[in-house]
């Protein structure tokens, strides 16, 4: 290392057990100390394990290849294997471990903005974590009721083939990959596998004051490292002790770790916090302000006397991929729009967005015809539309023009700040499609279709996100290139994640689901470990507004029902249950809340469920309706439901349905007969 550690060391060496990947780290001031360190390591592990080192594999560095080192290995009966010159891959275990440790150490230092002199502490911490003992969950399918639920293992790192941890199973002596793992960071490695147990932490009643470690020789540091290394057994202090059981800290899944970091650590609430982090400074300067200036969005002006000047603030958001990893950091300027008065500062604000029914229909058609679906979004979308009103805003915090501090900004183009921004953007994009001979759907103003002979291009717009598909790749490519010339666009390629929906496009069809959203929902309401059930509701159960049970927190209940309603975008199986319980959001009871939590229990067991749209050339639209009669206990009103599907013929399976839309409302009218209600339902849904 160019920068010495606090104890003046510039080198570290890793010793790795090739069988278990257990790792020891030592720090040195000079490379020439390798021989001395190796002898120290040999004495430690041989006494701790009761086994002898048989083979040492290293590169051909001078610190390993010298007469003193060779003589020692010969006397101790150690076979010293070396790599061929300039072929480090022959010692891949060591090279890979060195890289892993350095990447972990570098990330720790950068995340906490620590000086480089702390590199030794970061390296030691990385090795400590990689050596942690862990407990792997045994699936219920592989154990009996009275058998243990976990098995002990050693954490070896992360799998590159699957989303899980690489664990060495101490019982089976095999390498396994698992996602459900608990780490016990307090436990230390014990070479005697039959005696490896979860250890209790011995805590003294009175803790003596710790003495300062004197700065000095590297010998002091190596002594300290070897004594505290994960390979050493823990010794209780020589004072009166009490036993306290310390449970292992539960380590979350990698996707949950991503999510926690994203939402807790990576989204500052104000400018003062954001400016301390480089990623947010770059998002403000290079993304937002640079794009605003490039689009000539505003100009400096004197503060008007007859116009309201709108205040602005920074909003920070982390955009995620489908797996929860970070796609990009976004910083946006927004207005305190409540200061704008309707009829004075603006007139119209409405801008349509695509319905989820439309999105599903587009996916079903694309799957049916074996088309690929692509996605783009407009960069700084609201900077691409013009405004008719005269609007002034304050200069943004952190970017006030020097010498013009008293001036304000007059908007020349729309932004996220104005009440009319969404309408202005939609109007401009709509004009773009109309000028290029697209046809706008009469029932869905955000759906555009263009036909050229037998070729078709379909585009759906959701604010600044576009999805598009068709049967002619050249037509699709020309459209994409023209859009990117007219607007500042980001080409996202094949559609994989849209509005919280995960899309998996295969040759046989398209599968959509909301697994990630479901996991987040379960975690939000602390139901990620709940017992599963096979149905969303108890069969035959009747619910009413006044059921005699205690009332619960209405805001929490409404939040849960709202989250479940969004989940019905890909889960028609919970539509009825969620719609039924939504009737009690005004004054929910414990009975209602328990029923809502039952839906969560059902979701935990079915979070992989979604909709599979089958590819075929033979399809027809089929609709079904049904209802009960006077099913509501409170007002004797009826509940109806309908679903429309794209039925496809399958040689092996007969008919298979691709669901497009569904609904499950309670009717406002009371009817005297079931037949009368069903006729009314058929007419309403058919229209």
UniProtKB/TrEMBL annotation:
Q: Where is the Integrase catalytic domain?
A: 1-159
Tell me the superkingdom of the source: Eukaryota
| Gene3D superfamilies for this protein | Ribonuclease H-like superfamily/Ribonuclease H
Keyword list, A-Z: DNA integration, DNA recombination, DNA-directed DNA polymerase, Endonuclease, Hydrolase, Magnesium, Metal-binding, Multifunctional enzyme, Nuclease, Nucleotidyltransferase, RNA-directed DNA polymerase, Transferase
Q: Name one Pfam family in it.
A: SH3_retrovirus
InterPro entries cross-referenced by the UniProt entry: DNA/RNA_pol_sf, Integrase_cat-core, Retrotran_Ty1/copia-like, RNaseH-like_sf, RNaseH_sf, RVT_2, SH3_retrovirus
Disordered: annotated segments: 200-251
Name one molecular function that GO assigns to this entry.
RNA-directed DNA polymerase activity
Single GO biological process annotation from the record = DNA integration
PROSITE patterns per record: INTEGRASE (PS50994)
From the Swiss-Prot or TrEMBL record, give the protein name: Retrovirus-related Pol polyprotein from transposon RE1
């Amino acid at each position: 290392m160019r920068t010495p550690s606090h104890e003046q060391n510039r080198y570290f060496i890793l010793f790795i057990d090739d069988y278990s990947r257990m790792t020891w780290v030592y720090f040195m001031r000079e490379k020439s100390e390798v021989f001395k360190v190796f002898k120290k390591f040999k004495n430690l592990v041989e006494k701790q394990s009761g086994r002898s080192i048989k083979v040492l594999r290293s590169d051909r560095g001078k610190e390993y290849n010298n007469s003193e080192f060779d003589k020692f290995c010969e006397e101790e009966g150690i076979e010293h294997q070396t790599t061929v010159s300039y072929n480090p891959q022959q010692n891949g275990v060591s090279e890979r471990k060195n890289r892993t440790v350095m990447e972990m150490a570098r990330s720790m230092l950068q995340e906490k903005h620590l000086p480089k002199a702390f590199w030794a502490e970061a390296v030691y911490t990385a090795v400590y974590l990689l050596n942690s003992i862990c407990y792997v969950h045994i699936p219920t399918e592989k154990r009996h009721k009275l058998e243990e639920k976990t098995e002990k293992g050693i954490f070896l790192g992360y799998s590159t083939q699957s989303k899980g941890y690489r664990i060495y199973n101490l019982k089976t002596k095999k390498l396994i990959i698992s996602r459900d793992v608990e780490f016990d960071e307090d436990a230390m490695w014990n070479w005697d596998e039959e005696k490896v147990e979860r250890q209790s932490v011995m805590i003294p009643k009175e803790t003596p004051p710790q003495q300062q470690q004197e700065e000095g020789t590297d010998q002091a540091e190596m002594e300290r490292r070897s004594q505290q290394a994960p390979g050493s057994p823990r010794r209780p202090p020589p004072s009166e002790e009490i036993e306290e059981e310390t449970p292992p800290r539960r380590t979350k899944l990698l996707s949950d770790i991503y999510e926690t970091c994203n939402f807790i650590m990576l989204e500052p609430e104000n400018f003062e916090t954001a400016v301390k982090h480089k990623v947010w400074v770059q998002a403000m300067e290079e993304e937002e302000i640079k794009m605003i200036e490039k689009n000539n969005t505003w100009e400096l002006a004197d503060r008007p006397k007859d116009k309201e000047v709108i205040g602005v603030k920074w909003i920070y958001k982390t955009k995620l991929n489908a797996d929860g990893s970070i796609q990009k950091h976004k910083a946006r300027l927004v207005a305190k729009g409540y200061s704008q008065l309707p009829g004075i500062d603006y007139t119209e604000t409405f801008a349509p967005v695509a319905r989820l029914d439309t999105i599903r229909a587009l996916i079903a058609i694309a799957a049916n015809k074996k088309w690929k679906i692509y996605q783009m979004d407009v960069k700084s979308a609201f900077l691409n539309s013009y405004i008719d009103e005269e609007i002034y805003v304050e200069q943004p915090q952190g970017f006030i023009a020097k010498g013009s501090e008293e001036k304000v900004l007059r908007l020349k183009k729309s932004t996220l700040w104005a009440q009319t921004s969404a309408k202005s953007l939609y109007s401009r994009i709509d004009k773009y499609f109309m000028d290029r001979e697209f046809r706008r759907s009469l029932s869905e103003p955000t759906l555009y279709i263009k036909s050229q002979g037998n070729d078709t291009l379909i585009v759906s717009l959701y604010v600044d996100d576009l999805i598009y598909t068709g049967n002619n790749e050249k037509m699709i490519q020309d459209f994409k290139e023209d859009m990117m010339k007219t607007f500042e666009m980001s080409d996202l390629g094949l559609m994989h994640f849209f509005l919280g929906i995960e899309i998996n496009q295969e040759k046989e069809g398209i599968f959509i689901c909301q697994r990630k959203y479901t996991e987040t929902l379960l975690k939000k309401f602390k139901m990620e470990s709940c017992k599963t059930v096979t149905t969303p509701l108890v069969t035959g159960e009747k619910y009413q507004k006044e059921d005699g049970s205690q009332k619960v927190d209405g805001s929490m209940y409404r939040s849960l029902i709202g989250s479940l309603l969004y989940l019905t975008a890909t889960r028609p199986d919970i539509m009825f249950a969620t719609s039924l319980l939504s009737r009690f959001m005004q004054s929910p009871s414990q009975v209602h809340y328990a029923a809502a939590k039952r839906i969560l229990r059902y979701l935990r067991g079915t979070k992989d469920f979604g909709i599979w749209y089958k590819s075929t050339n033979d399809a027809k639209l089929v609709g079904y309706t049904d209802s009960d009669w006077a099913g509501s206990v409170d007002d004797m009103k009826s509940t109806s439901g309908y679903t429309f599907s794209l039925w496809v013929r399958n040689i092996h399976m007969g008919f298979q349905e691709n669901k497009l839309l569904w609904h499950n409302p309670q009717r406002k009218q009371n009817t005297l007969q079931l037949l009368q209600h069903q006729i009314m339902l058929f007419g309403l849904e058919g229209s």
